Amino acid sequence: MKRTTTARVKIFGDTYHLKGETTEQHLHRLAEMVDQRMREIAARSPHLDVPRVAVLAALSFADEVLRLRRELDEVYELLEEETEGKSTESPPPEGGGT
Hints:
Helices cover 60% and strands 14% of the residues. The chain has helices at residues 24-44, 50-87, and strands spanning 5-11, 14-20. It is an alpha+beta fold. The chain has a two-stranded antiparallel ribbon with strand order 1-2. The termini are far apart. Helix 1 (24-44) crosses helix 2 (50-87). The chain has two helices and two strands, in the order ββαα.
């Protein structure tokens, strides 16, 4: 059975109580990443209100996930091609050719 962990974190000035089946350190790292992204967006566009900053941060993370998934798919395809190429090669001759 997985153990649920809770952590009290601050994101963009607000306190949140996060709960998840992970470590407290992981929950804090997630909060730090969100806080940092929101601060970067707010610094570039100081006129935005908090909900818009949060939505733009979410879109930024979603874009990052999609790009990483695409890159991972490309790596998988290359590995499949390499594996298929090796399986179609002729096996070495038995007995050393003597």
